[in-house]
Amino acid sequence: MPLWLQGTLELGQAAVLSALLVLLPLIGVWFANGFTDRDFTSLARLGGQAWLLIHGVPMSLSFPAGELGEAPASGLLSFFPLGLTLIPFFLSWRAGRRLARASYTDQLWQALLGAMGTYALIGAAAAYFCSTEGVRISVTAGALVPLIAAGAGLIVGARIEAGSWVRLIGMDLTDWIARTSQHSRWAGSYMWAALRAGAVGTLAALGLSSVLLVVALAMNWAEIASVYERLDAGALGGAVLTVVELGLMPNFVVWTLGWASGAGFSLGTGSMISPLETTVGPLPALPVLAALPVGNMEYGYAALLIPVMAGILAGWWFLREGENHFDEWLSIKIRARWFTAPVSTLVLGVIVGLVSGLLAAGAAWLALGSLGIGRFVSLGSDPLCLGLWVAAEVGIGVVLGYAVGPWLEREPKPDA
């Protein structure tokens, strides 16, 4: 089988499977009379719109006069359910592994080109046939935006199967690095270790934020169950609603990091939820929102320690990596250790903090969304604000973690 055709089949299969996983719950609700005003054709369009939405494709909504108010309403729906995006990502990841096994190093591009072209055509077709008077979808966006999740899955899967970038792209970066000067290699090793430490800081902050989110859900479980009871959506409707909430959990984790960092997050125009300020307007009847922090939070400021703790872990990780060549170079140039040690540590904190802040801002941008109508045109944390807060707090933690790391690394004295 030609490689371009195999790529077409592999990623076409991933698109069909992901569409079925989105459409089957809607069909179940339809058979349970949950969509009394829809025929099967309009239900299929709704499924296609949901498939495009989990890929991050924005949609223009419009409502005639009297449907939502006296005047016509319109807006851009651009909410990205990060958890549900894992469905096409992992299906594409599987396809990437299979294509890497079937291709030689200099032929993989043929399979990837066929796969990505097929996915773009499917996305464009979905955007064209699923557009209605009330929901307008750009065919160009439908073709290009789904390639982000699918392309990332393809590349990650192919890289894992290939085992190295050499086999994947046919270029040996190790030989190129070996031909550079020793100073360039030291500088590259230092920056690469600092970049990875920044990633460690962001991942640790998100991990600790997810723990905080789980604790908040557990402490407010009774209120969440009460909202489910008031909705009275039935077993199938409640299951679909729970799946939607699980798909939004990565978004909620990023919002929790926004709250813990002090940057806060918004649930609509004029609202702000943070340890420093809490202003919330009317909210939709989504059970998980019952876990929002409200009232007097005397210990809310303690949450600001989460990014600092993540920075401590990042600084300790960098110490264990042993790639602080800037400190070594500075010690050679300036013999005063009382000066070089604090300066190199502060520079490390600035670099790692900036990397963590940029990654956190990127996560906030992905988790940011808009329902397009009413006051819910701003959902999530401001990326710039969150990035600045995380950069400052992680940077402080890196300085502390790198400073106390040597004491943590000391081996216990053997018993006499």
Automatic annotation (TrEMBL):
Membrane-traversing stretches: 12-31, 43-63, 75-96, 108-129, 135-158, 193-219, 239-260, 272-293, 299-319, 339-366, 386-408
Pfam families membership: DUF6350
InterPro entries registered for this protein in UniProt: DUF6350
Protein keywords: Membrane, Transmembrane, Transmembrane helix
Record's protein name: DUF6350 family protein
